[in-house]
Amino acid sequence: MKKNWWKILCIILLVYTVIAGFLVKVPDLPILGETSRNLFFHVAMWMAMMVLFICSVVYSIRYLRSMDLKDDVRAKNFAAVGIYFGILGYATGAVWMSYTWADPNNPSFEFSAIAREPKLIGAAVALLIYFAYFILRDSIQDMDKRARIAAVYNVFAFAMLFPTIWIVPRLLPSLHPGQEGNPALNFKDVNTTMRMVEYPAFIGWTLLGVWIAQVKIKLGLLSEKLNAQ
Amino acid sequence: MKKIYSSIIFLLLYFFPQVTFAQSDSLMRRDGRIYVVVTVVLIILLGLIGYLVRIEKKINKLTKHNDSL
């Protein structure tokens, strides 16, 4: 029980997020309206993804130093859950975008403008690079070789996250908010009441991602052990 | 023990709407009935977390069993 305090924290934060996320008063902004509540859900997915990818790259570097296959299992599963959260972020973003940017009465919000959106392309490229991580892993039969090549590739994939989702979208004109500074973490663009839900939401969803990753890691270590027997 | 817990949860879920249904000005009907959505999402969230806890317990048991071999 003592070691599981963060899981209880995760449940409490997520329950709080859902209750407060729907009930808190949000400023009635033009176009956005009530959809700004998505900050607690859509943006939190990307935050969770980022933390999971950081965990993944840390374990990959640890693997390269220790050559311990357990670290490879950890890196792999953190990346897998990170990708999952990334896909969830992408899907929720697609829905949100459809009802805010895409306006049938406004000719400047055509599909071609949305398809050119640098943030979308950047996020897609970043996720595709991580898909390639799994394709690369599965294409190598030898266990040690697979783990080593995958770990090196994972460092590259993590490095590519920065230009694709953090730098390039900000250099180009975009409809996506957060053009200047850190989106959602900037004190100027989120008001105080929303921030009271925002940070617990980010921590709660991130902890949920880590929790799922942990369960997957346990399963991975177990099956590794059973295969070795 | 497990069965008792699940039947208690089932009964709570079963009677919750029946109790709140009777009051026409209840919390569930206020503010455009947003609380209904909150309840639905909470049930889904807690259901998924409960599922995750159960899977983890099963894996822990298997790991322990495997270590003792």
Structure notes:
The complex is a heterodimer of chains A (229) and B (69). With 229 residues, chain A is mainly α. Chain A has helices spanning 5-23, 42-66, 69-98, 111-115, 118-138, 143-171, 192-228. In chain A, helix 2 (42-66) packs across helix 6. The longest helix of chain A has 37 residues, at 192-228. Chain A is globular and about 65 Å long. In chain A, 34% of the residues are buried. The model of chain A has no long low-confidence stretch (mean pLDDT 87). With 69 residues, chain B is mainly alpha-helical. Helix content of chain B is 80%, strand content 0%. Chain B has helices at residues 2-21, 34-68.
Brief rundown of the structure:
The complex is a heterodimer of chains A (229) and B (69). Chain A has 229 residues and is an all-alpha fold. In chain A, 72% of the residues lie in helices and 0% in strands.
Question: What key attributes describe this structure?
Answer:
heterodimer; A: 229 residues; mainly alpha; B: 69 residues
In terms of topology, how is this protein built?
The complex is a heterodimer of chains A (229) and B (69).
Chain A: H1 5-23, H2 42-66, H3 69-98, H4 111-115, H5 118-138, H6 143-171, H7 192-228
Chain B: H1 2-21, H2 34-68
- The count of strands of chain B amounts to 0
| Succession of helices and strands of chain A | HHHHHHH
Query: Helical segment tally of chain A?
Result: 7
The overall pLDDT of chain A, averaged over residues, is 87
- Low-pLDDT parts of chain A are none
Q: How much of the polypeptide of chain A forms β-strand, as a percent range?
A: under 5%
Order of helices and strands of chain B: HH
Mass-distribution shape of chain A: globular
Quaternary structure type? heterodimer
Q: Tell me the structural class of chain A.
A: mainly alpha
Total number of strands of chain A: 0
Main sheet summary of chain A:
none
Largest interface: A-B, 19 and 17 residues
Number of helices of chain B: 2
Overall body shape of chain B: elongated
The termini of chain A sit apart by: 31 Å
Rg of chain B, nearest Å: 18 Å
